[in-house]
Structures are given as C-alpha cells and as structure tokens.
Amino acid sequence: MDQVFTAFLFLLKMGNEIKSILVTGGCGFIGSNFIHLCLRERDYEIINLDALTYAGNLENLKDYESDSRYKFVKGQIEDPELIKDLMQEVDAVVHFAAESHVDRSIEDQKPFVITNVLGTQVLLSGALNSPRLKRFVHVSTDEVYGSLRPDDRPFKEDDHLHPNSPYSASKASSDLFCRASFKTYGLPVVITRCSNNYGPYQFPEKLIPLMCINAMADKPLPIYGDGSNVRDWIYVEDHCKGVLAALEQGVPGEIYNFGGECELSNLEVVKTILKILKKPEDLITFVADRPGHDFRYAMDITKAQKELGWKPEWTFSRGIEMTIKWYQENRGWWEKILSGDYRDYYHRRYGSL
Ligand code: NAD
Ligand code: TYD
User: Fold this and answer.
1) Which atom of ligand 1 is found nearest the CA of 202?
2) What separation in Å is there between the alpha carbon of 7 and the centre of ligand 2?
3) Which of 62, 92, 156, 277 shows the greatest Cβ crowding within 10 Å of its Cβ?
C-alpha cells in the first residue's frame, strides 16, 4: 500500500518535463563539470547555488557567465529561506554541494555535519514544499558502503552502509534522510553513488591533482601508508553523464552505483603520473597512514548499465593523459589556489612550493 501511494504521488508529479534545475555546489569539481555538460548537450535553465567555500571557484564556469540559461546564486544550502525561494523557480534539484575531503573531516567534523547532513535536510524540506518539483538527485559516494578486502565482491546498491570516516558518515546520513523523504513523503528522490573521480577542475588536495602538481614542481609525492590502498577511478565526465541519466531516467526511490571499473592501488596511480611527466620515482615519499584509512572501494555498476543505459567510456590511460595535460595547460588556475587561502593548509601538509 505504502509503495502504491508513493508511486501515485510520483505519477502525479510526472506531468511536465524538466526545464529548470537547481544545481547545488556547481562551483566545485564535479558540479562545474556537470554544468558544462548540461549547457553543452542540453537546453536546461540552471541555477547554481554555491557558498564558494575554499573548494568553490567561479573561474570553473567563466565560459558560461553570460549564457542566458545560467544563473549563479551565492548562498548556503542550509539557509531555509533562500532554499524556499529557489525551489519555487525549478523543476528539479541536482545536489552536489558538500564538504568532500576525508582528511579535512578527520581534522574537524563539524562543517561536514552542517553542510552534508543539515544542508541536505534543509534542501529536502524545501523540495517538499515545492509543488512543481519532479526530481531530486542526491549525489553520493561509494565511501558510504565502507571498505572492501582484496577478495570481496564490489559494492551493490542494496549493501548495508558501513561508513568509516567522518566524511562518509555524514554522506551516509544524508543518503538516509533522502531515503526517508521518499518513503515518508513520496519526494521523488534518486540517489547516485560514485567511486573516485578525477579530471579538470579538481581541487589540488585530492590524490591525483596533488600528485600532478607536486610532480611538475619536483616536490615529494606523499603516499599514505605503503600505497597499497585501492580506489576505483572514473573520469569526471563519465560520472556527470551518469548523474544526467539518473536525472532524466532514474526511478524515484532507487539508488544507482557508478564506477570506472578501474581498480588501481595508489602506488600504481602515482607511478603512472610520474611516467607520463617523465619524473623520477624517488619523488615518492611514504608518510604516516590516514587514520581509519579504507583499504579498497569497487563498484558493481550492473544496475546503471541495465536500467539507465549508462557505462563509463573513458579508459584510465586516456583520462589521466587528459587530466595531466589540463593541469599543465591551466597553471594559472591552480597557482592562484596555491597562493590564496589554501596556501597555509598546503604548506602545513606538504611544505612550500
Ligand atoms: P568539491 O569539494 O570540489 O565541491 C563542493 C562544492 O560545494 C564547492 O563548490 C563548495 O563551495 C560547495 N559548498 C560546500 N558547502 C556548501 C554549502 N554549505 N552551501 C552551498 N555550497 C556549498 O566536491 P566534489 O569533489 O565536486 O564533490 C561533489 C559531490 O560529489 C559531493 O557531494 C561528494 O560527496 C560527491 N562525490 C565526490 C566524489 C569525488 O571523487 N570527488 C566521488 C563520489 C561522490
Ligand atoms: P583522496 O583523493 O583524498 O580520495 P578518498 O580518500 O576520498 O578516496 O585519496 C585517494 C587515495 O589516495 C586514498 O587512499 C588516500 C590516498 N592519498 C595519499 O596517499 N596521499 C595524499 O596526499 C592524498 C591526498 C591521498
């Protein structure tokens, strides 16, 4: 009965097609790549709500500043009045905004609770009061499932959640509020969970851009532990295409896993970067391990392949070449970041550039 009721609510809301989208966190790495994709391949009107934290950068979208389909609003997702107003203007939400870095969550958990948990709850409540809302896509992560051992099968959508870091605990919590909003109120929520992304515009605190930049400057490449931890790498454009498919074809209440089907140890990733840049392997420096460091992530993407017709298209060798080229050709983008507020954090962790 419960499911019949939610399906009925869903059908009621499916009346019109989606024309306008509220994208949260669109000035960050994946959100900006998603807006680029939408404005290139679709005709949606987009409102980008972003607080411009250290990770948000208006330069990521400078090519579209004067596009009449695009509007930027500076603000916090946890501001209920602002969210209430913005919800009246859109047919769908694609929610990327988050505190996204595990190491920062270990140092200070509070911003992760405020943005990832409270911010998501405020967005969901705002969405509930919007009669025209047809989809709420919540962008989540493989890290909510916890950590795999070498012989475990990849994560599936109905696996239990076992988050280990404050970051993944806050994302798992936001996933559960999304589930509750679907089950209790029939809000047409779709949850996507993706593995580790890489590509243009990634903030240089994450493994791949940090290693590219340090290697270019002949600085040490800090590897946590022994470098055997495994991640499933996906080129950001493939992830964005998956999120778009979830927006357009995803069934409310469903979860879709995305991944690159490309498991590599951190040491393999870093050695590949050094090889492409023709830099010596003795730049690699083993440093203290991350507390609670998840050993391995890997995604089973069968459901997204079957139900959304999605699959990753980029090989790692092509994606990493493109990414390195982008950081080589866009020195001004990351040099500005390294000389701004991020400088102190970077120097504390990695020494001066
Ligand atoms: P990011 O840190 O690069 O960008 C986050 C953006 O959110 C920034 O522009 C920031 O200014 C904005 N933001 C932060 N707090 C805000 C607030 N309170 N109100 C409004 N805006 C706020 O992150 P990303 O790597 O682009 O990740 C985007 C989403 O994808 C996150 O939800 C993350 O959990 C998820 N995800 C990331 C990866 C990955 O590999 N990076 C993988 C899977 C899922
Ligand atoms: P990261 O890019 O922070 O993503 P996540 O922790 O969300 O997977 O880290 C990817 C992997 O690289 C992870 O196993 C931690 C490791 N790592 C290092 O070894 N050194 C570093 O300086 C960083 C930032 C990460």
Assistant:
1) 3
2) 40
3) 92
